Sequence to fold (1353 residues):
Amino acid sequence: MRQSKTLKTQSLRLDLAAMAMITAVIIAAAWVVYDGLEEQFLKNSIADASNAGVFIDSELLHAQEQLSLFAKMPAAQKRILAERGFDTFSDLYALDDQGRINTIYKAKPQSRLFEGYVFSAGPVWRQLLQSSNVARVSSIVAGYEDGAPSIYVAYRTGTQIVLGRLNLSYIQNFINQYSRITGNVLLLTTDKGVVMVSGRPELMLPRLDMTALNPDMYPSEPITLDHQSWVPVISDSPALGAYLAVLVPTRLLDQQRNTMLIALAVFLTGLLLIVLIKHRKLDGKVLEPLSQIVTRIRRIEAGEPMTDLDAPKRGMPTELMEINRHIATMSQAIAERESKLTSTAAALATRESELSLILEHLPVPLVVFESADEHLITFTNASFLDALGYSTTEAYSLLSLFGHTCQDADTAKRVSQAIEAMINAHRNTHEPADPVEVSIQCRSGIQHDFIVSAISLQDTAIATLVDVTALRQSQRALLDAKVKAEKQEQEQSQFLAMMSHEIRTPLTSILGITELLAQDELSARSRDLVNRLENVNQLLLRIVNDVLDHSKIEAGELNLQSYRFDLHELIGKCQGMFAKLAQDKGVSLSFDVQANCPVWRQADAFRLEQVLSNLIGNAIKFTEKGSVGVKMRCLDKAEDPSWIRIEVSDTGIGIPKALESLIFEPYKQIENESLRQLGGTGLGLAISKRIIHAMGGQIGLNTKPQIGTTFWLELPLLLASPPDDLPQRQSSSAAHSQAHLKGAQLLVVDDSTAIQFLIAEMLAPLSITCHSAADGQQALDLLKDTAKGFDAVLMDIQMPNMNGIECTRAIREDSTLKDLPIIAMTADLVGTQRQEIREADANALLEKPLRQEQLVECLALQIEATPWRLFPHIAGIDRNHALQTVGQNADLFVRLLRVFVQENANTVESLLKLIDGSDLDGARSQLNQLQAGASQIGALKLRDIAQQIETLISSEDQLDSALVHAIDEELTQINQSAMRDGLLT
Amino acid sequence: MKIRTTIGLLLLAVGLSGTVYWAITSLTPQKITVAVDAPIVNKRIFDPSDMDAARLYFEENPDSRMQIKELYYDFDPKRSPERFESAMDEGVEFFVTTQPSSTLLASTHLFKTPSALLINTSSTNPSTTGKDDYIIRIIADAQAEQQAIAQYIDSLPGKRLLVLQDSANNEYTDPAFDYFIGALEERGHWQITHEKLLFESFSPTRFQRLMSEPFDALYVLGGDFQASMGNMVQLFHQYHPDAPIVLTPWARSNAIYETAGPALDRMVLLGHHPGKAQDPAIEDYLQRFTKRYGYQPMAMALMVRQGLELLEQAFAAGHTTPEAVKQYLLSQPELQTSLGTIEIDAYGDSTQRLHPIEDLGTELRFTP
Fold:
């Protein structure tokens, strides 16, 4: 293979290929030239032959003319003329029409004919004498007189025929002369190709095969005669009745061809010689020196020293000498580099030895392994052996190492894969990957925790194993302690929650009973006692709330909620809460709320209200005279427009400078006499600060003793969009009275009989009948028995067996109770259950302790004049709108609904027909009817669609057919929903 | 490695090609050259039917073991041997010739040894009869021929017989006349007027007186110059319209048909083959010939055909040397050809009889 690609062979190949191409071109050119010469030569020869044919034809014509003149002569004149010569004809006869010779005018001396001889067959008879076939000239035949080639001419006069045999000596002469001069052979043949006259008789050609020759003077394939090649060319002579053939010798052409071939052969031989000489020169001048250069390069490769033999030879081409010189230079440079490399290698070896020692004695276990698939271990240091106890013989690869040390094969594989991932990550990012921690059982059987790090080198990788067993043990101890502490904390939280519920439930009863007691007619002393009791109750409630809140905050259970609320409503609520207190104390209470500040916000409104209540309450408490002002502003923060600032200012005694730093600290009243004089638990401001901080805000104060104090807070309250049903709710809320609550049936679900009693007492004046259930399951049982007998449910959340949230969900899953109003009750101050209550689809939430006013107002809102069971919710129907339209008359609504559904059973079909028929007035009329009916039953969406279609028709805009089909969908939805509720059959 | 592989493949291809060529050439019988020796005469136009007969054979038998080499003789006995020798020098071992006795006798010495074998179709000189040479004569010799003619003439009515003998081919006509006259005189039936002349130079003026003498029949003893024969018989017929005219087998030709004129009706030819009316094979062959070449062949064309067929049979039987072919032909009691059976004796001389053809007008007439 290598030999076939050497420069020598390739050069030879190229030369031979070029020579072959040159040969092909020259042969083609020679062939074209030879072909042209041959064609021209044959043309010239054929032209000569044509001239000969013309000559013979003219001779024959002349003979015919003479014979006709002769025939017309009188007999005596004929004899005279014949005796005198008349050389055109050698023989002349007078024949009868039977071909019998009557008179011989002229005859050759050796003629075999005689008077009385009959031409009865043969060409003369057939061609000239036979009455039905008389021609003027016969074909060339063997003469009847002597067997010599002869041509006969006949002329008929009446019954006599004059027949003459042409004297062919002239033509024979011409043929011989022509053949001798031109070198071509002129032949006269019969129509069968039998040669009668030949320009060269010695050629011994008896006959030409006319079937194998081309007619009309067109050259035929050469024939061989007398060891020579001839090209036959034939033409028929119409006058002669025979063929004139020319044999053109190809000798000249052959000589030319042979000369050309010899010249070509000489040329090609010379060319081949040139190629060989050139190749030999190339071999000596170029290839051999090249071979020497290659040998030299190989010796350099082998590291052999340069010798004098490597010096360039004489006669070497300049380029090769240049290469040789560069190789010498290169060789010298290589030698120098090798020397440097040797010294560098020695230094590297020393460095490597040092590094090995370092690695060997590194106190961290270290393992070096191959990056390839099997990760074969190539090195481990002493620390590795000390720590794990395995040598590289036992742990020859990562998998075998971890196979020994991990608990099972899967773990070993997983650890190996983690290390491989670290290597790949390092290879890709050039940054060390995060280490992994593995627990390994060492050879001693002791489990150790190692942090494994690995980095990728060129073809290997290094992993270090840092023993963190001691660290992890201490961490585990700490974790156990933490878990224990968290458990204790959780238990404490649970205790606090339980305490919150357990304390607040009787407190609710106390507060409620006190409130009920205050409503009775009492003596002045009793009234005073009740008032004092109520104040004490309020104080107690506040103290309990503060303590529980603080406990929860300290326990990290301050879980803020986020829901939409009305900021103005929240301020107004605070205003309502403290107006009577301020008035009783003689302090003016004013609120200044920025008008253009966005009202709807998203935050934990309960906690914000708690803070504001605390600040406002403190301000009123510590202001003996003067005023308390609350001011709210939106902060102009470009980056966040949700921030607000609220200031609560009073004209009270102020706070001493020394106490400013302690005012927000819990339990400082215990430690500080001045603070203790202020009264209260001292937890309010601490709780407020924690809440505001948890909400992402700040709280602070500005105070001047004896002048007053301003507490301020700044916090972000997310902007929220107003609710869709805001007007209805407000209007319905405002519109509701308590009159329709009379006779209502209420299910109170609470495990506390005291609460059950309290609620029943609170609602008794309104003639509301309360039914009690101790837990969720009892409530469900009651609802199943008298499903539609209740107008609402008051649901406590924290109950045994089934709590209030679970019970609410169960009720909502019953389709017949989906509209039953459920009012949740909770004593959970921190509000962790609020979200769950909302998600369980309770209608409202009341906080414990319950206040009669709140309870009644809530019931009035949730229990409507028309009971939910009589006027169920129907998909596609706005219930409030329908109630207003029918004046809360459910029976009327049902009747209207049935009529509406019946009337519009075919509305869509009819409407489409009208539109297709371009009856736009009819369509508008039908749409008006539909709008009216839909509005009547509260199908507001349907009404709007109908109105939209009518508008499009009126404005002659393009009507979307989907709108018409939307009518059908709305009608179907109303129909199916009403049927499910039993309103339609 | 690539060059070595290429060269190896080339050598293998060359070797395979050589083997295939060797197999084909060794298994395919090689063509055997057979020289057909036909006349060509300067100035004398001679019928080319001998060579055309040979050409027709090869056209009709393209798978023949033989290949033709055309030879031409010019009736010059001196030049006859050199032509044969020249062909032999070229490797030709088999010949079919139509040379007349006058020419062939000069070359018979060339066929004394098994270097070449000659099929003689036309020389009847008795000097070759009974010789153990390598000449196979497939026509009867002059003795048998003339005895048959004499027997026929003897059967004719009349007493005065004119015999015209061609002096141009004495090697044939002299012994022939002797055999003829010997056979006829034995019977004593005819008074014979014998005139020897050069047919080629026949002069009516000179023979007018002779012809006008009273004769009951004419026998033209000659082989060539059939056109002259035609003139002679016509002149004889002019004086003896009812006298029969007897011709030798060699007179069968288109020339005599064209020149004999009204004498044709009185002419009888004793041929080597039956008339075409008697032998469909002859008729079929003549038709094929005239269709191919446009003229009626001479008598010797039939013998050329038969000679080639005999050689073909011998070659087909696996005999390819003159000696083997000779032995093969001599071993056959009868030699079958498409134009009839040939019987030869132990010296290779035909012994068969002649066939009188009396309706020569019909026999020689043809439609081109």
Summary: Residues 167 and 174 of chain B are 8 Å apart (CA to CA). The longest strand of chain B covers residues 32-39. Chain B has a mean pLDDT of 90.
